[in-house]
Design brief:
The structure holds two protein chains of two kinds.
Chain A: H1 3-30, H2 35-60, H3 68-89, H4 97-113, H5 128-158, H6 172-205, H7 213-235, H8 239-263
Helix pairs in contact in A: 1-2, 1-4, 2-3, 3-4, 3-5, 4-5, 5-6, 5-8, 6-7, 6-8, 7-8
Chain B: H1 7-10, H2 12-28, H3 31-50, H4 57-76, H5 79-82, H6 84-106, E1 108-115, E2 119-120, E3 126-129, E4 142-152, E5 156-167, E6 173-178, E7 184-186, E8 189-207, E9 213-216, E10 230-233, E11 242-247, E12 259-260, E13 268-273, E14 276-280, E15 285-288, E16 291-308, H7 312-335
Antiparallel strand pairs in B: 1-3, 1-16, 2-4, 4-5, 4-12, 5-6, 7-8, 8-9, 8-16, 10-11, 11-13, 13-14, 15-16
Helix pairs in contact in B: 2-4, 3-4, 4-6, 6-7
The chains are: A mainly alpha, B alpha+beta.
The complex binds protoporphyrin IX containing FE.
């Protein structure tokens, strides 16, 4: 099948995501609850997106891990999977979609602007560690995204913007607890990502650590997570302060994931 | 919390020193200090990233301080006694740190090149080792039995398949195909194939006095230095520098389609010596002032990276302990209350 068909399906998926996302924002603004429709759109988008990625995978005989287009596409996909799961399983925080979806819109816009051409799949990528390492990274970012949605609501409420609009959500204290749990999950998977990355790097490049940009920034992100959790136990900060910490970790994680591969041509400097 | 032993009240000396010691330990265990040190470590990591010269003390100092901070906390903060997984997690972090430090003191990193059929005899081209490297590289032997590499369109290198053989501890001859993420492991050393490889003319050098010797000269890496397949070198024991160049017209690796690394079918070896220039075919020879040089055949050579770090399996174990205990800690904590916020 041709690349055009894959792209058409991808665009259809994005349209479904955008409809779901816009509807969730409108729902919050108008204080309506079109939650089943939102979930339907997001699930439809995810299904189409899965088909598009699957077709590309079959055509190129490798997964979406090489070019910026592929990295963005597979991350929008995995973030949608995690968020949809949270949306489905935690009905009380569904309105966080109004915070989360705009972040995903940015990624989708970037995805549409990036070049869908084929990249080179280096020999060192032919290993199960590829999936394990990237899988851990995706769960980490997914947990951070859910945390960001929750933190966003806390901050919007504090800014006086969403006090009534978000009234159906739990109070700040409970949101804070949820954001903290997401941070904890993020730390576990970030740790796993670093460990599996080091094991793979030892095999592929003969060293477990070499200060390449992605390694270094991932480590700093991990450290910031540790700092955030320690600030929580040391100072017991108010929910909105914790929310800022969540935003900081998310931004650093986001810049590491999508900013660093953007400036160096391969995901890792030593990859090819 | 440390409970002072009652005997210290009777002993005037320790009654004065113990509380100050405990107080000191408590202040060393401060969680605020942890935050400051973690932030300092973050800055140190950024410096280390910028420059190689910042990769030892600037990292070691905050890491050592964090360890002291943590060990003081383990000694004085009751939470570590109440929460075993949290204790294991933090101790695993200290273990990781000590292992990395030990690894830095005893590692070895190096490169070597071997022509097809040649045996590694413990000599490296470049070496970088910690001050306490105790491995026995001199005793390691293996033979490069030749390699195959396929290239995709655009000269994109596919997997490297390098046949190697060696004699194991029991004296049995062993064989394997290594390449990319599959190194050869002998006596704790890991040998990785590298992108560095090329052609190696093999010579028989018969000096006027002494025994004839067979040896290979490694030409610059191919295809990296495709246009410079020349090398100047002197036969062993000879003072005369000889310049050689591999000459062939074929396109060995074709960017427009798939191809395989191979020897040229037709080639000759240009040899320049002083004012003289001759072209040799395999089997032909040339008389030099202090001996006779015969061009035997053309082979390939492979460049290897070697790495030694005995801490690797322990690092893996400590990492596993860290992540499992972290998971355990949070599992226990979160299972106590329901998830739906
Ligand atoms: C980069 C290194 C470190 C990481 C990743 C880390 C991570 C963590 C994590 C995840 C928790 C659990 C938080 C919770 O359950 O809410 C924790 C708690 C704790 N950490 Fe660390 N830690 C590090 C270094 C240290 C150091 C150097 C100390 C030394 C004082 C320390 C002392 C503690 C203490 C006392 C607690 C328990 C706090 C409480 O629950 O009251 N940690 N740490």
């Amino acid at each position: 099948m041709s690349m055009e068909r894959e792209l058409q399906i991808l665009w259809a998926a994005i349209v479904a995501y955008v409809l779901g996302g816009v509807l969730s924002i409108v729902g919050v603004v108008l204080r309506r609850h079109p939650e089943r429709t939102v979930m339907g759109f997001l699930a439809a988008g995810l299904t189409l997106h899965t088909v598009s990625i699957g077709l590309r995978w079959a055509r190129l005989e490798h997964g979406p891990f090489i070019t910026m287009f592929e990295i963005l596409s597979s991350n929008v996909w995995s973030l949608m999977v995690v968020f949809l799961l949270a949306y489905w399983r935690m009905p009380r925080i569904r309105a966080t979609a109004a915070v989360v979806m705009p972040v995903l819109f940015v990624m989708m816009g970037w995805l549409m602007l990036s070049h869908p051409g084929e990249g080179f799949f280096p020999p060192t990528y032919r290993t199960p560690w590829l999936f394990i390492h990237i899988g851990m990274a995706k769960v980490f970012m997914g947990a951070m995204l859910v945390a960001l949605g929750v933190a966003g609501v806390i901050l919007l409420r504090r800014a006086g913007i969403g006090v009534q609009k978000f009234e159906r959500l739990p109070d700040d204290k409970r949101l804070d607890e949820l954001a903290f749990r997401c941070l904890a999950i993020a730390l576990i998977f970030d740790t796993l990502m670093l460990i599996t990355g080091a094991i793979w790097a030892q095999d592929a490049w003969g060293r477990y650590w070499a200060w390449d940009p992605l390694e270094t920034w991932s480590f700093i992100t991990w450290l910031l997570l540790a700092i955030a959790l320690h600030i929580r136990v040391t100072f017991k900060p108010s929910p909105h302060r914790t929310a800022w910490l969540v935003v900081a970790v998310f931004v650093l994680g986001f810049v590491t994931f999508f900013g660093v591969p953007f400036i160096s041509e391969s995901p890792h400097k030593g990859a090819v | 919390m440390i409970v002072l032993p009652s005997r210290s009240r009777q002993d005037g000396e320790s009654a004065r020193t113990m509380p100050t010691f405990t107080a000191l330990l408590r202040s060393l265990a401060s969680l605020r200090l942890t935050l400051v040190l973690l932030a300092v470590l973050g800055v140190a990591i950024l410096l280390a990233y910028q420059s190689e010269s910042w990769r030892s003390w600037p990292l070691a100092v905050p890491l050592a301080a964090l360890s002291i901070n943590l060990l003081a906390a383990v000694g004085t903060n009751g939470i570590f006694r109440r929460q075993l997984p949290l204790l294991i997690f933090h101790l695993a972090l200290v273990a990781l740190l000590l292992l990395v430090a030990a690894g830095r003191l005893s590692y070895l990193k190096g490169t070597l090149e071997l022509a097809e059929g040649a045996t590694f005899e413990g000599r490296l081209v470049t070496t970088d080792a910690g001050p306490f490297h105790l491995g026995n590289l001199a005793a390691v032997r293996f033979v490069n039995e030749g390699f195959a590499i396929d290239y995709a369109r655009g000269l994109r290198r596919g997997p490297t398949r390098n046949a190697v053989s060696w004699v194991d501890e029991q004296g049995r001859r062993r064989q394997d195909v290594i390449g990319d993420q599959h190194p050869l492991k002998i006596k704790g050393y890991r040998f990785y194939t590298s992108f560095n490889k090329g052609f190696a003319p093999v010579f028989l050098w018969a000096p006027e006095r002494g025994e004839a010797q067979l040896g290979a000269v490694h030409l610059p890496a191919y295809p990296k230095h495709e246009l410079n397949q020349a090398q100047e070198w002197s036969p062993p024991g000879s003072r005369a520098p000889v310049w050689i160049m591999l000459k062939f017209d074929e396109k060995l690796l074709d960017p427009s389609g798939p191809s395989t690394f191979r020897l040229p079918e037709k080639y000759s070896l240009v040899v320049r010596f002083g004012e003289r220039r001759v072209e040799l075919q395999p089997g032909q020879s040339l008389d030099l002032p202090d001996g006779r040089l015969e061009f035997r055949e053309l082979k390939t050579w492979m460049g290897y990276d070697v790495f030694y770090d005995w801490t690797l399996p322990w690092l893996a174990a400590a990492s596993l302990a860290a992540v499992l205990s972290l998971g355990w800690h949070f599992w226990r904590k979160f299972a106590a209350k329901p998830w739906d916020a």
